[in-house]
Every structure is written in structure tokens, then in C-alpha cells.
């Protein structure tokens, strides 16, 4: 095999590998758990996703500003060192409580950063479904400034 063919096949393999791996580990929670996306309370959304659970308040860190100057783009970070099957993020002020759900595998690093909308002050909750069969929870409360100018 000449050098150009080798490089060409290598580039092709590297380009298709991430798409193949992500397709194998992706779960469409909107199709598999549709009631969770329609739930109006955090408790109802958790029940629709995972059933009747009692998450431990340990192992999950949720970070957000104490005062969000723009409720249309609240920066949120969710971190955990736990081995997880899934991570769900919920909030208690918008009409639908479930914000997002991430499917995890044994190589996943739980260090998610994203922005979400919050129409008023409230609480953001993250639920981690551990590979050990237990559920873990982290929460943070924040204020959303009216008018987007912190006052």
C-alpha cells in the first residue's frame, strides 16, 4: 500500500468512527419517554423518566450564577465523577420541567456546560442514573433578574 492510500484510509476511518460510536450509544428520550417532556413539575418528570425513585443528594454538582442577568440564556454546568447510564436536567419554573437528558456509557465524562431559559427565579436539578442502580441528585437555586439588567 502506498503512502497516499494509507493516509486516505486513515482519514476516512477517523472521520467515520465518531459518527458510528455516537449512533450506537444514542437514546432518543423524546420517543422512549414522551410523558417526561410534557410534565409540568420536576417530580412528575422524574417519575416519567425513572419511576418512583429516591435520589441521594450526593455526587452531583450543579453550577449556575446566583443571579442570572439574562433569563433567556442562563449558563449551567453539571459535573459528576460517577459512572452513569444517564443524566437528566430539570427546572421548576417553566411550563415543562425537563430541560435535557444525556445518555452515558462507560467512557462518558459528566462535565456538561449549556445555556437554558428560565422565565423567573427557581431551582435547577440534575439527576444521575448510576450504573450501580442508584440515583443521585444535585441542585442549585438562582435568581433571574427582571429586565435582564440585574435589578
What this model shows, in words?
This protein is α+β, with helices and mostly antiparallel strands and 151 residues long. The protein has a single domain (28-148), classed as Immunoglobulin-like, CATH 2.60.40. The protein contains 4 helices and 8 strands. The strands form 2 sheets. Strands 2-8-7-4-5 form a 5-stranded mixed β-sheet. The protein has a 3-stranded antiparallel β-sheet with strand order 1-3-6, with no helix packed on it. The longest helix is centred in the N-terminal third of the chain and has 23 residues, at 3-25.
Describe, in short, the structure shown.
By secondary structure, the chain is an alpha+beta fold.
Number of domains: 1
Query: What's the CATH topology label?
Result: Immunoglobulin-like
The first-to-last residue Cα distance is 68 Å
Number of strands: 8
Rg (CA only): 19 Å
The CATH architecture would be: Sandwich
* Mean pLDDT figure: 85
State the major sheet: 5 strands, mixed
Structural class: alpha+beta
State the share of residues found in helices, binned by percent. Answer: 25-40%
Question: What is the 3D shape?
Answer: globular
Secondary-structure blueprint:
Layout: H1 3-25, H2 29-32, H3 34-38, H4 42-50, E1 60-63, E2 67-68, E3 74-80, E4 84-91, E5 98-103, E6 110-116, E7 122-130, E8 135-144
Parallel strand pairs: 2-8
Antiparallel strand pairs: 1-3, 3-6, 4-5, 4-7, 7-8
List keywords for this structure.
three-stranded antiparallel β-sheet, alpha+beta, globular, 151 residues
